[in-house]
Amino acid sequence: MLLAKVSGTFIRVSLTAPSYWEIRAAKSILQALELRRSVSGNFCPTCSRCEVNLVKLVEDFTKKLKIPVLIAIRIALMGCVVNGPGEARQADIGVAFRQEESGNFSQR
Q1: Under the phi-then-psi rule, with left for phi > 0, alpha for psi from -120 to 50, and beta for the rest, what region is 34?
Q2: I need a surface site. Which of 52, 66, 74, 89 has the fewest CB within 10 A?
Q3: Same domain, yes or no: 50 and 77
Q4: What is residue 5's predicted lDDT score, i.e. its pLDDT?
Q5: How confident is the model over 26-79, as pLDDT tens digits?
Q6: 3-state per-residue secondary structure call for the chain
Q7: Residue 56's domain is classified under what CATH number?
């Protein structure tokens, strides 16, 4: 909570890992506090209802997340139309897949 109230311009994260993990951790902290504009994803854990290769779809999507954005936005990719809309209710934009089709829904 203290970090959320500080209005500084610098964040330092120290990990016993390669430095690129420190950068990723710092970006994740700022995103979680909504202090960094970014596209973030919410992905379903998959179950027997999943009718698409969601792992491949998520991998392709996350490769494209590195684009600059003007506003913070949450996107959900769900593997089925049964639970997808409910599980993605906190996302701004959601996609629930069904075989070769998809259903899009938006909260904005």
Answers
A1: left
A2: 66
A3: yes
A4: 63
A5: 877 877 776 766 677 777 777 788 878 888 888 888 777 766 666 777 888 888
A6: CHHHHCCCCCCCCCCCCCHHHHHHHHHHHHHHCCCCCCEEEEECCCCCCCCCCHHHHHHHHHHCCCCCCCCCEEEEEECCCCCHHHHCCCCCEEEEEECCEEEEEECC
A7: 3.30.413.10
Report which of 36, 86, 104 is spatially closest to residue 65, judged by C-alpha positions. Answer: 36
Domain enclosing residue 12, as ranges: 1-36
Model confidence band, residue 106 (pLDDT cutoffs 50, 70, 90): low
- The reply to whether 2 and 46 lie within a common domain is no
24 with 72, same domain? no
Find where tokens 């639970």 sit: 83
Q: What is the pTM of this model?
A: 0.58
The Cα 9–Cα 31 span in angstroms is: 14
Residues 24 and 47 in one domain: no
The DSSP bridge pattern shows strands 101-106 and 93-98 to be antiparallel
Q: Which two tokens stand for residue 11?
A: 């964040």
